[in-house]
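Lay summary. Proteins are chains of building blocks that fold into shapes, and those shapes determine what they do. In this project we predict the shape from the chain. Here is one chain we studied, written as its sequence of building blocks.
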Amino acid sequence: MPKVRRGRKAPPEGFDEIEPTLIELDSKMREAETAPLQANQTKEEAMWPIFQIHHQRTRYVYDLYYKRRAISRALLDYLIKEKYADGNLIAKWRKQGYEALCCLRCIQPRDTNFGTTCICRVPRVQLGDKPVECRNCGCRGCSSGD
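And here is the predicted shape, written in a compact code that computers can read:
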């Protein structure tokens, strides 16, 4: 979790209530970042826990503001500005068809071989019984049509 720099304004009201959860997620993120690479694991697979914790932290902030209405707009802006949450991912979640998006890399065509979106964006009905695992973030399907 980024440290609050001295000389800046104090965090908005309500930050104290969500700070323990953010600290817990930050400690999980640090553990994932410092975890050693296993023998049978690729570099991409080693990044999966980091992407999953990033998604979890951003989804927590999103749910607090848009679903439960538990935090103010000022606090949401503060959390995005201080990099507690990903503003671009939250913006995509608000659009139709992207409600369950796992990460932004899955919708970028430049990260795939054929210039399309990731395999996890294909609805499971069209894939059949084949197990699907995204090579970018390890998700098993984030299509809204599932």
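What the prediction tells us: The chain has two domains: 15-94, 98-146.
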